[in-house]
Request: fold
Amino acid sequence: MKRLASYLLPLALFLAACSPPLPSGILDEDDMTDVLVDFHLAQGMAESQVENQDVARYNYIQAVFRKHRITEAEFDSSMVYWSGRAEDFTHIYDNVVTRVQAQAERMGLELSSSQDKFASLTNEGDTANIWLGKDFACIVANPVQCVYSFSMKADTTFKAGDRFIWRFKTQFVGRSMNNEAIALLNFYYDNDTVCCVTDLVRSSLKNEMRHNPGRAIDSLQLRSISGFIYLPIVKGADQPKPLLVSEMQLIRMHKEQPVAPKLPADTLRTDTLSSDTLPKQKAERLSPLQVRESQPKEKKIHVVKENPNPIRPQQGIPQRINRRRR
Reply:
């Protein structure tokens, strides 16, 4: 074991000596991490201000530079250097995110993800986060790193009429009059139908680009999606500062299906008797006399009318009396 350690120690020293030194004015990995942590905390403190957020952001960032005894030019040069080394910069930024979250909780700063209804989405369900790219990107205004792009093909989980939201956070590292990028989304449907969504990107905690297909295309099947964020290269000394893009999501929402209205339940009670409880009587054959008596009879009424002129005997004339002969 001691012999192995005696071989490994010189080898580690040799590799450290052979690693190329950092250019002059470039912060090393540890110092860059410390500066970025304070930089993000300063941005969060500025965003919490109700008024004059731009002024507060500038003052807080300048305080960060004074704390670490660096200039804004050194910070910009370090950002350009480390952003050109994707693996190293990803490692730096992973440490930055972890430390910023812990520091924000200790300082009592409100994290936007705690109240984000899309933060806990998965890649399954009617509303899902289908983002497959990396969560972080650094865009620099030079011919090599001025654009970040992605593309994906639709699979069987996509349905006609799906809606989409591309969400991400952006932050320019430093002040410039030309801090403005362009974001674009392309949706390719059947029948060579293409829909585009564009937006201007500035320093913002939240960016959302929405695509809601209209009636003309909500029945077409989606084939693929592509998009990019482009930071233009401006002529002159006032170049745009590096743009940090983080927490990227692509939310897919299925079209809501119409639901049939529920009819009220019938309030009439149904007959619970399975059969008639009254006993059935057998039909008896009637005799001819009973048939005649059962038929309706016409009733006659005997009316006796009084004679209006009765014959009365005259006075002085004896009435005739019939006598029997003996």
